[in-house]
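Entry 14. Structure prediction run on the chain below.
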Amino acid sequence: MNPQIPSPIPLFDPGVCLITPQAQLILSEAKQDPATYIRRHVCGDWSSMPNLAREQNLRALDARDDILSTYNVPGKGMVWVKTDRAAGVTTILLPSDY
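Output returned:
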């Protein structure tokens, strides 16, 4: 049984949290706290993800696979939050950083 998404508590450990310089600049210019996006990501608030991607994230919770979220940054475009569960790393990045 899958937990209620989004959850009030984290669904997985993000591990070490990183941010690319370009993503840091975008969030800083938009006066957005990167920690907010990490919190949303680990609690299953996968924002503007299509339904198929949300389903993949739900399966990834059980399989310990990678998890990807996308978020619109007000007036600045989009950031991704990607957790590489094998490496124990979550990174906030721009789509162009990938």
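The two ends are 32 Å apart (CA to CA).
Filed with the rest of this week's runs.
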